[in-house]
Amino acid sequence: MKRGPYLKYIYWMTKHETEALRGELASQNIKVKTAKGIVCTPLDIINKISIVPPEVWNDTCGRQGSWYRTSDKNGLYLVISSFELEKHQERRAAVITESDFVPPRLASQKDKRALYEDDHLKERMPEDWKHVDNTEKRIYLRWARRLGSDVRDYDFLYQSHTANHANFIHPHFFVREDGLQVPYSIDRSAHLCSCCVELFQVLGADFKKKLVAPCPGATIFARLKPDRYLLVQN
Question: Is the pTM of this model over 0.90?
Answer without folding.
Answer: yes
